[in-house]
Amino acid sequence: MRSTIGKTHFGTPASHLRSIALLEGLSYLVLLFIAMPLKYVGDMPLAVRIVGSAHGALFVWLGLLVLRGLVSRRRPTSWAARIMAASLLPFGTLVLDRKLRGEADAARRALKSV
Fold first, then answer.
1. What domain count does the chain have?
2. Whether 91 contacts 29, CB under 8 Å
């Protein structure tokens, strides 16, 4: 089962991007709706430090994957701008997921046909 998860979520560059985009979007929601209230209402600033660090790392990872898509996969600049803009909006990457899922499925089908 472990190899199936790895192939599904990280088997192609498109599925890797989709997985990291989802994780980044979820970390943003946790930061906004759980960690920030804990900091300001519950007087627990450590929550923001931990979740914010994880979210920042995922954001950088997403940015690097988008750059790789621009360079190696020759994706248009509008594709990159749409993904990075979605990552700045709450629920943005979750809305974008349908489009990324289509790209990942197409890449997976192309690998199977080869």
1. 1
2. yes
| DSSP structure string for 7-35 | HHHHSSHHHHHHHHHHHHHHHHHHIIIII
User: Do residues 80 and 11 make contact, with C-beta atoms less than 8 angstroms apart?
Assistant: no
What tokens were used for 111?
């690998």
pLDDT given for residue 111 in this prediction: 79
Domain around 26: 2-113
Q: What whole-number distance in Å separates Cα of residue 51 and Cα of residue 58?
A: 11
Q: In this predicted structure, what is the pLDDT of residue 2? A: 53
Q: Look at the alpha carbons of 73, 74, 77, 82 in this order and tell me if their dihedral is positive or negative.
A: negative
3-state helix, strand, coil in the chain (%, to 5): 85, 0, 15
CA 68 – CA 90 distance, rounded (Å): 24
Q: Please tell me the pTM assigned to this model.
A: 0.86
* Residue of 80, 87, 81, 82 lying closest to 32 (CA atoms): 87
